[in-house]
Amino acid sequence: MTAFDKIWVTVKNVARQFSTRKEMVTALENVSFEVHDGQFVSLLGPSGCGKTTLLRMIGGLDVPTSGTITIDGKVVNGPSPKMTMVFQEYSLYPWRTVAQNVGFGLEMIGTPPDQRKAEVEKQLKLVGLENFSDSYPYELSGGMRQRAAVARALATDPAVMLMDEPFGALDAQTRNKMQHELLHIRQETKKTILFVTHSVDEAVYLSDKIVILTPRPGSVHEIYDVPLPFPRDRTSMEFAQIRKNILQVIEELETDCQNI
Questions:
Q1: Which is it for strands 83-86 and 192-196: parallel, antiparallel or unpaired?
Q2: Burial 109-142 (b: 16+ CB within 10 A, else e)
Q3: Which of 42, 44, 55, 176 measures 20 to 30 Å from 239, CA to CA?
Q4: Contact 181, 27 (CB under 8 A)
Q5: Peptide bond into 46 cis (omega under 30)
Q6: 16 to 64, 102, 218: CA distances (angstroms)
Q7: What is d(CA 224, CA 204) in angstroms, rounded to the nearest whole number?
Q8: In this structure, what DSSP letter does residue 101 have?
Q9: Cα(54)–Cα(56) distance, rounded to whole angstroms?
């Protein structure tokens, strides 16, 4: 990979609190890290540590209680065309064809029809769905629907892609295939990607850097650089050792939480 010079995302001293009927709940506290241009960064940690909440705030879909989030030096105060999100649930419109779903964001920003058609065809080819442009979501497998969702996210040429457990609902074989395809897409597009996952194996396979969050309230426990070259071999000793180290960290965090 090339050196990562420009900082695209800065999270500084971010906290998020929610008010319930009984109490004030602190989901995140004093979270700080940076994501550089072209980096693949995974957010990893025990269930309930605030990974999705943090990703939604970076995407402008939620607001920090305190602290700041900036994209390319500008404070995030709502959704931005510089960022797109891919969710676990695919979020495709069932009444639209694959091509119409992929082109939806381009429609919203007023892209001319000819230019929109060319961009949709380009992205469908990139994700291997060029022969399914006229299909509807119900006619696709789970992996194909998620590829369509990725193509839709790429179509508007965002600077940063935010991915919230995009492969979590897939079977193990399809999930591994999608991980491989995502690495291919990243190589082709050079996109900056922030990726939420519960899987240590997935994080090690995909990431340049892994931000490990503590149990609630979520804060940054450790930022782990993954020095392995791409493509990565899951069966190698180096891969297994990194996976073991991170699993041990997370298990210790969960044990500490249970002992409180």
A1: unpaired
A2: eebeeeebeebbeebbebbebeebbeebbeebee
A3: 55
A4: no
A5: no
A6: 5, 33, 9
A7: 10
A8: H
A9: 5
> Encoding tokens for residue 219?
């804060």
Phi-psi region of 48 (alpha: psi -120 to 50; beta: other; left: phi over 0): left
By DSSP bridging, strand 66-71 and strand 209-213 are: unpaired
The secondary structure of 155-172 as a DSSP string is: HT--SEEEEESTTTTS-H
194 within 8 A of 9, measured Cβ to Cβ: yes
Q: How far apart (Å, rounded) are the C-alpha atoms in residues 214 and 116?
A: 43
Residue 156 CB neighbours (<10 A): 19
251, two tokens: 């298990």
Amino acid at site 223? I
pTM metric for this prediction: 0.91
Q: Looking at the predicted structure, is the pLDDT value of residue 46 above 90?
A: no
d(CA 239, CA 1): 17
Instruction: Please list the alpha-helical segments (H only) found in 10-157.
Output: 51-58, 98-102, 104-108, 113-126, 142-155
H or E element in which residue 200 lies: helix 200-206
